[in-house]
Amino acid sequence: MSERPVHEHIRELSRELVALSETVLANFDRALEAVRQQDLQSGRRVKEVDDEINLAEVRLEERCLAFLALQQPVARDLRTIVTIIKINDDLERIGDLAVHIVERMPSLGTDVMEGYEFEKMGGAASQMVRKSLEAFINRDRHLAAEVCKSDEEVDAMHRLVFKRVGEAMKQDGSNTDQQLAVLSVSRYIERMADHATRIALEVIYLVTGEIVRHGEDSFEKLVRSLRD
Fold first, then answer.
1. How does residue 225 score in pLDDT terms, banded at 50, 70 and 90?
2. Claim: this prediction has a pTM higher than 0.85
3. Which of 99, 83, 59 is nearest to 185 (CA)?
4. pLDDT for 207 beyond 60
5. Per-position DSSP letters for the chain, written without gaps between them
């Protein structure tokens, strides 16, 4: 670790985190498109990029831990590094979700992907991740709170998919494997939105120093406090 000012180190680590987020989001979009197009080559590329994401996640965590050991930051600087480590972990898990989606490719097809509007659902989840990273960059607790509230939109889409799959499986001749794959993809996108919410909550912790759990009461209390 060089003798540069602490804040320069933190800015560099933050930039690396943002760069990783862009790679993760691009790969997630690639996974959905690969399944929609039944593109095996793109599917393989998703897995290759995920290996790169895993390596980048490990490198960033190691750099953060080295920073903690050598610089021993306190107060806001300490919270920033802890937040970067946690967001880094969430991004790696989103990367894994892209691979899981591609693994469902054999059971899915273009008509299924379009029929369940997974592109729209995936776009909403991706936008949540982008906004949560923007909130991190700008230390914007209000934007982070908006991300948390928008999680319900993706949850509602997931519930609708679940309902439609249930109805389809009651019909004669229903392709059970395909419907289970549909449920899995919907769940993976919903999990991506959950990770975006986790990132947003970490941003709120970074800005306010308050640890907010996922309980509705605590979140609503936080939203009211942000309006004051």
1. very low
2. yes
3. 99
4. yes
5. --SS-HHHHHHHHHHHHHHHHHHHHHHHHHHHHHHHHT-HHHHHHHHHHHHHHHHHHHHHHHHHHHHHHHH---HHHHHHHHHHHHHHHHHHHHHHHHHHHHHTGGG--HHHHHHTTHHHHHHHHHHHHHHHHHHHHHT-HHHHHHHHHHHHHHHHHHHHHHHHHHHHHTSTT--HHHHHHHHHHHHHHHHHHHHHHHHHHHHHHHHH-----S-HHHHHHHHHHHH-
